[in-house]
Amino acid sequence: MNSDPVFDREALRVWLEPLDALPLECDGMSRVVSALLTRDSICHLVCTGRLEIDGVGVIPRHWWIELGDGVICDWRARMWLGEGASVPHGFFEPRDGVRYVALDRFVLEYSPLVFEVLAGRPLEEYAAAPEPLAQWQLRRTQK
Predict the structure, then answer these.
(1) Is pLDDT at 135 greater than 60 in this prediction?
(2) Residue 18 burial by CB count (10 A; 0-12/13-18/19+): exposed, middle or buried?
(3) CA separation for the pair 7, 46 (Å, rounded)
(4) Domain contains 106
(5) pTM of the predicted model, to two decimals?
(6) Residue 61's closest CA among 21, 101, 97, 19?
(7) Is residue 3 part of a domain?
(8) Into how many domains does the chain fold?
């Protein structure tokens, strides 16, 4: 994916962090996050594959989101590998010893109904992307 421009990770975190409280596993969380990103025209891919963390463990079948600047969104690795500091959570770039091995990358079909079933509220009730992200999306479409 394109490495330019850079996302405002703090704006992403603040915007999407409330989703972390949802009782969803990695596939459901990826679907919910993807629906919001798609609704607000933020380029991303849903990925499935393996997560390997040296000294911690492996998730052999895992889902996550990749954003356009190489940032990964994964709110569920800690569900399976524990709360340790070496287990990523939220938005980040993979570091040494953390390997996301994608077996498939795809764009999910946009479905407000699936969002509502998984998140327990209509998609239109969730706040729009904050201004720094909206500006990123605008710059991206102008390139």
Answers:
(1) no
(2) exposed
(3) 17
(4) yes
(5) 0.87
(6) 101
(7) no
(8) 1
